[in-house]
Amino acid sequence: MEITELITIKGVISNLRATSKKQALQDLAERAAAITGQHERAIFDVLMERERLGTTGVGNGIAIPHGKLANLDRLYGLFARLGKPINFDAIDERPVDLIFLLLAPESAGADHLKALARVSRLLRDKTVCEKLRGTDTPEALYALLTESMSSRAA
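Given the sequence above, the corresponding structure tokens read:
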């Protein structure tokens, strides 16, 4: 699965202004609702339920919140670069400034895991993260995400 199948330019936020994990997830749920056609509250609830199982703050300033919804027709991704890093209860206790949200249909199974692994691999690349942190337009962020992913697809 290519990153371009997950995310569109509408799903890229260049300067998310959240001051807490909850607010960031609410803002992302609102944006995801507009893109997926799902209810904002249902998306937020799924994300919070997943966070209760354990943080999706994976370290190095990165979080990959994710969840499954019954009525989705495919996988959806959103990417946000925060204006100021926030506490996300990350495993390394560092604040988060890059968030990649992934939503999947309940039936996604392996595709959901493959997409999570692909996003995780991308965001483990320090060079890519430095470029994402140094970029301030949705178009440039989208270009970096899709260029980086397609160059690793092989």
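The longest helix spans residues 21-36. Try to locate this feature in the token string yourself.
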